[in-house]
Amino acid sequence: MIQVFILKIENPDCFWVCIKGGGKFVDNEMDYQKLQSEMNQFYNKSFRCMDEIKPSALEEGQACTVYCQELKSWCRAVVKSIISCTDYYVADCFLVDYAKSLPVKTDRICVALESFMRLPYRAKKFRLYCTKPVTLRVDYCSDSAEIVPANCWDISAIQYFQNLLNATTQVEAKLCAIENDLFDVYLYVTIKGEKVCVNDDLVAKNFAYYEMNNKMCSTAEDQKKTTANLEPPSKEINPALVFWPMLLQPKEASSFETCKYGKCISEGQGQTGGKQQHMGGVRLHLKIKCRKYFHWIGSVYCLAHLPVVLSNKIEPCSSLETAPLFLALKKELLRNHFLGPSHVQSYSWPAIARGCDSVIICPENDPLLYLLPIITFLQSRSCYISLPVRNGPIALIVCPGQKKAELVFELLETYIRCSRPLYPMLLLLGMNKEEIKSVRIPRGCEIMVTTPQSLLRLLECHSLLFLRLCHLVFDEVDVLFSEASEQIFNILEYYKKNLNVGEKESAPQQIVAVGSQWTKNAEYLTKEFMNDPYIVITAMEEGAIYGKVQQVVQLCLEHNKMSTLLQTLDFTPTDTQKTLIFTSSVEETEIVYKAVMSSSIFCLKMSPEIGFHSDYVIEQWNKCSGTYIVLVVTDDSLPALGITDATGVIHFSFPSSPRIFGARLYSMSANFQNPVEKTRSILLLTEKSACHAVGVLRYLKRTGANIPPELCDFTSGVLEAKEDCKRGRPLCHYLKAYGICKNKERCPDRHRVSLQTDLPRKLTDETLPTAGTVTILPLFVVDATHYFGRIVAKQEDQYTALAKEMNQYYKETRNCVSVDTVENLKMYALHKESSFHRVQVLEVERKEDSVFCIHIKYIDEGRTANVQNYHLLNLPEEFQDLPPQAVEFIVCRVKPIDNEVEWNPKVTRFINHKIKGEVHEAKIVLALGNTVWVDPVVRITKLQNLKTSINEYNIRSEILSTGLGVDNPGHIQELQSLFKDAEIAQEPDLWIDSIMEATALRLEQLSGNTMD
C-alpha cells in the first residue's frame, strides 16, 4: 500500500498523484527540491541569453522547461499541442511534476538539459483498476430500463469521485498493474476515521461495474518503458474480492453467470482460446433481480438495496443533487463536507419535506433527519399567510433533555445561516414561577427547541403559544414516551385542540417523530394524532415489532438443539407456511437440511457454495404457494435470494448481531401487519448464547411475547454474575449522587457496596469520620451537589501545618529543583497561585522534543489540570507522609428537575460562586471509601462583637430555590439499603470470624491458666 497526494482529477480513469510514502515507490523530497533549486539557478541566469537555450525545433511530446508564474519557478514540461496564432505560436505544456496545463509562447520555451531529467516525473497517472463506467439505457418500446456499460464517465460519477477525494484525510493506493505510464490501482480513502475502497464505492453507488479479466499486471517490456522504472508487484489477491462471499468469487475453469438469460463468461475459455472475454461484450442486466446476486464488500454494499420498512411508497433521493432541499442549504452542506444523504435520510427527507406526518425509526439519533427538510419547508412563506399575526413558533422541536436540546439548537444555528431569518429560540425553563412569567418569545421567532417539561411550564403562562404552530417534531420519541409520557400526551392534546382554529385551516399541519425503537406509544401516536403517516424503519428488528411478528424463545441445551428444532416445526400442511431456518455455516446447513428432509418435509437449502445457481431455489420457493416449504439458509446467502414473503423464521444458530437478526426478520417484511398471514420468529437459546440472554429478554418484553420463567431466572443470574465482575470498578457516580442509576444494565461501574473495598480511608492517623458534624472546605465544585475539598480539624489541622512547612521550604531558591524525569503516579510539588501544592502525575504526554504535557491531580484539593514538565518540583519524602487530604462530598436529598442526570450549568455556576473556598458545617449521613454524604450543609457566620452566630444559608435549600432542583427523599434510604445488603452478604464471613476470634480467646485463656 502506498500513500499518495492527489494533484489533479479528470475522471476515475485519469487522475494524477504524487507518491508520498509506502513501499519502494517513495519519491525523495530532498532530491526534487535540489533539482528545482538547480533549475531555477541555471535558467534565471541563462534566460538573458535566450538563443543559447532555445530549442531548434519544437514538436508534440517533446520534453522542455518553462516558467510558471503561479509557482514562480521553472518547471519540467511536455509539449501536448501547438496552436498557431496571428503572429506567434502557443504551446500547451503539461507540467510533469505538478500535473498542471500551462499555455506558453514557443519563444519562451527552453531546452530541458539532460542533467535535469535525471529524476522521474513526480506526477504519476493513475486509474481505478478493473472499474468501468455504466449508464442507464431506457427502452421506450418495452417501457423498461437497464444499467449497461458506457464508453465514458458521466458528470455525476466524476463529481462524486471528486467529492470523495476532496473529503478524505488520507489517500492510499494498492498497485495492481502498469501499462506504459499508466498505473492501475485500488484506491482507498479515509473519511471520518473509516477506510473506504473507492473502486467498491463507485460500484456500490451504481456509477461503475467491475470488469473481471486476467490482466493483472503488465508485461516486463512495458514495465521497462515506465518513466519511474517501477517493477510490478508480485501476484496479489485482488483486494476487492477479499471480503466477497464465496459465491461471488470467480473460479478457474468454471462459468460465471452474469445475467438471468444464462449467458456466461468462462475464464478457462479466455485462457485456452487466446481471446479475452470481458463484461463489456455481454449485456449487463443489472435489474432489481440481478442486483440481489451481489453481496456487500466489507461495510460497503455492492449493487444491493439496503432493507427498509415503509408504510407508504416513497421514492428515495439517492444523492444530494436530487434531495428535496433548497439550493443554498445544499451548498452549505457541501461546504461542511456532507457525504449524505444516508440510507435513512434518503427516505425520510422526501416525506418530511412534503409536509407529511412521519415516523422515522433508525439506529442513528441524527437531528439532520428532520432539521434540513423542516428548514426547507419553512422557506415557503406563502404556506403560512393565513396564520394569525402574533408571536409564536411555526415549528416546535421537543427533545428528551437539555443536552440534546442544546445539540439540536447548535445544529439549527449552523444550517439556518443560508436560510431566510427564522430567529430560533432555545427554551429551557426551571420551576421558578417568576422566571417563567418573564419569558418573552422574540418577535419573528419561527422555530423553537425545548424539552417537554419546559414547554408545559411555559404553556401555563402563555396558553396561546400553539396558535401559529404547524410543525411539531419529537426527537428520540421512544425516550420521550418512556421518561415523560404524560407530558408528551398533554402536548399532543394541546396541539390537537388548536387544529380547529379557523385561521389555520389552510396552513400545513405536520407531526414528525424520530426515534430508535418502535413502541406501543408510537403506534398510538400514529393512529390518534397523525393523518396517513409515512412510517420509515431502517432497523429491521424494530420493523418486526412494527409488523407484529410473534416472537418465541425456546430454551434448550446445545446437544438437544436439533430435536428441539424438529419439535418446533409445524407439520400441518393446511397452514401453507414458508419457513426459513438460519444456520451459521455450510456444514450446519447440510446437517439441518438432512434432518428436516428425514422428517418428510419438503425442504430446500441455500449456501454460498451453491453460487449463482440459485434460480431453482427461488423458483421452488415462489412456486410452492399454498404448500408447506422449509428453506435452510446461511446469513450471507440470504441477499442473493431476496426473500420477503416468509411466514416463519427459525434461528437455529444465534444471530451474531442485531443487524443480522434484523436482516433475518426482514425476510418476512411482505407479511408485516398482515392479518391473514401471521408471522412468527423462533429463537433457539442455548448455553452457548447465554451472554445474549439479557438483550433477548429486553427485546421480548417490548414485543409483548410470552416470556418463559426460566429465561427470567437465568437472566437475573447473568446480571448477578455481571455485577460480580465489576468488583474492581468504582461505585457508580449516579448511584452515589442520586441513589439510583437509570442505565444499570449497561453502566460499566459497580452498583453494590463492598465493605472491603469501600472502607473509609485514612486522612491522618485516624480514618475518615462516618458520623457526626464536621467542618468542610469545598475547593473544587464538580456540579451542584458534588464537591472535593478537605475536612478541617477544629483544633490541630495537620494539613495547615504541612502547607506552612512546604512554603517555608520552597522559599529557598536552592530547593526549587525542577524534575528531570517525570514518572507516572509519583508525587511532586507545584507552585501555583502564590502557594505550593502536592500533586500526583496521572499521565505523561510528549508535546515537543524536551517538553511534556503532564496530566496531574491536586491530591489535597481533588481537581485535575495539565502542566508542563518543567513546572514540577521535587517533593521531599517528609512532605509525602501525610495521606492525600481531598475528600469527595455529596449533598443528599436533592436532584435535577425533569429526570435529568446532569445538573444545569446555571445552578452549578451559582453554587460554585457561593461555596468555593468557604468553610461550612456539615452533618455526615454515610461514609464509604473516600466519599462522604452530607445533609445538611450550612454556612455559619459569626457576628462581630457578639457571642453568637447565624446560619447564612443551607446548600440544599439554595439549590431548590433556583427552580432547577427537586426533592429526592429516597436518596439516603437507597444508600442505606445498599449498605445493609453488603452487611447481610458479609454475615457468613463475620460469623466465621467471630467463631475464630472466640476460639483464639479461649485458647489464650487456657494457655494463661496453664502458665499459672
Automatic annotation (TrEMBL):
Residues 368-536 form the Helicase ATP-binding domain. It comes from the Eukaryota. It is an enzyme of class 3 (hydrolase). It catalyses: ATP + H2O = ADP + phosphate + H(+). GO terms for molecular function: ATP binding; hydrolase activity; nucleic acid binding; RNA helicase activity; zinc ion binding. A zinc finger (C3H1-type) spans 726-754. CDD domains: Tudor_TDRD12_rpt2. PROSITE patterns: HELICASE_ATP_BIND_1, ZF_C3H1. One of its GO terms (biological process) is regulatory ncRNA-mediated gene silencing. Residues 726-754 form the C3H1-type domain. Its EC number is 3.6.4.13. Keywords: ATP-binding, Developmental protein, Differentiation, Helicase, Hydrolase, Meiosis, Metal-binding, Nucleotide-binding, Repeat, RNA-mediated gene silencing, Spermatogenesis, Zinc, Zinc-finger. Transmembrane segments: none annotated. Coiled coil: none annotated. This is RNA helicase. It comes from Varanus komodoensis.
